[in-house]
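User: For this week's homework, look closely at the record that follows, marking any run of repeated tokens, and judge whether sequence predicts the tokens.
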Amino acid sequence: MESPEAPDTPVHGLDAINADVAIGEAEAFYPSEEFALPTPRVGQGGRIARSTAFFSAATAASRVAGLAREVVAAGYFGVKGPVSAFTIAFQVPNLVRALFADAALQPAFVPVFTDLVGRRQFKEAFRLASTLLLLITMVLGALTAIFVLAAPVVIPIFAPGFEGHLLDLTVSLSRILFPILILLGISGVVVGILNSYDRFGAFAISPFFWNVTIIIVLVVLEPMFSEKNRIYAYAIGILIGTAVQLAIPAWDLRHTPFRFSWSLDWRHPGVRRVLLLMLPVTISLGLINFNQLINSFFGSLVSEDAPAAIDKAFRLYQLPQGIFSVAIATVLFPTLARFANNGEFVNLRATLANGMRQILFVLLPATAAILALSTPIIRLVYQRGEFQPHETMIVSTALFWFAFSLPTNGVYLLQTRTFFSLQKPWQATALAVIDLVVSAGAAAALYKPFGVGGIVAGTGIGTSAAVFAQAYILRRKFNGLELGRLLSTVTRISIASAALAGVGWVVWDVLDSALGESLPAQIVSLGSGLLAGGLIYFAVAWALRIAELEQILRLLRRRRG
């Protein structure tokens, strides 16, 4: 049965915070690549539609620029030891950023600031924002200073396999990168103020310029460093790019009524409200970044190349996740929240079940394509300059094993949104702990015999455990999850996906053998393989009468009409 259609409903307060956490759980990208859609207000449908369309275009531009950044960096550095040092040096401040800076602060600040502005308590609202800006600068500045001094003690905890020059390089890079914490903390409040006044443009375009700035700085500075120190150009690019990312929305503040004052009213009641709202967000996003550090931790015990190889594969793995599962979960979340608030659990269950089938309809074929073509994908995207064929094999191995967790991670996102719609964020957080613990245990057991593949497989095992735990709880809550229909749909989708993998690989293999490995030839052979596989997937899906394909076709027909 198709899920009932419902109009979009505004998402405010804790619901909005929970939505941002769920997006973060699906998109563990660099800080400037984490987007939250603007929170709609009643009576602003047209404006919000335009803002959302602009956000979508800006997100696409940022994704393209981000991929270009990865390609340029791979061409300069490959996945050798210095890149692994950079990966871990970035992930440590990124973890602290998730706990205290923009990712946790912005969704907690906006509801409190907006509430004060809505009640026309402008002086109090501006005092709150000014206080938070000063507090954040002081607290994060102190944390940065402490870390810079303690880096030689802290970094070895996260890179137990590094020693000598590589460990010293990781420490030095982390000292350069850690100040981004201050910039991102300030950015969380600045962007929150802009969003509260329905100004989303500067925030939406700043990640694009973050990526572009990094590329420019890298190209300009890299030749100025010696061979063994070239990676410093990348770290400096991140720091300058983050400053640009803050400068763009900060400049846009002049179009709002907000005026900064040197007010350090740390006892302001709004400060306490923001800190309380930050708590569940902080824990959830912290767990996400711990997962990335787990991969790098065990990767450092495998080889110097492993942390960077896993990170490079993760960037590509996240593309279908960010494009499809986040979009579906974002669209369905207001409907889930409305049904939950009204106690309409039958409709909520039907919406969740239909959403899971839609996600699997998209992500299972994406999984099949990656499993069949992971090596040519990595070769086309990364293999040039310093990125050598043996590095392609390491990264493609990581991408191959990441593919197995692609469908479960998409379902995990939607089920997490369902817990948020039920106003049970702490239950979702507890389940995220299961994911973290199982992933760490599996990686610890598998990294020695299987290397990079074992570490990445651990991530998939952890996510699967969390999905099954979520499904068990939700099934008891809703007296079922339409699992029979889900199993039938998954079986038919799997058949169509197997056809995609087979046809796609055969077409690629024939063309690759005939055309060779030049860049145009790779584009033709891989593109033709993916296109042929996609066509056969939709043909088989149509023949097997998979309902989710019919839903998509009806939606497209309505939009054309």
User: Anything to note?
Assistant: The radius of gyration is 23 Å. Residues 13-481 form one domain. The CA atoms of residues 342 and 348 lie 10 Å apart.
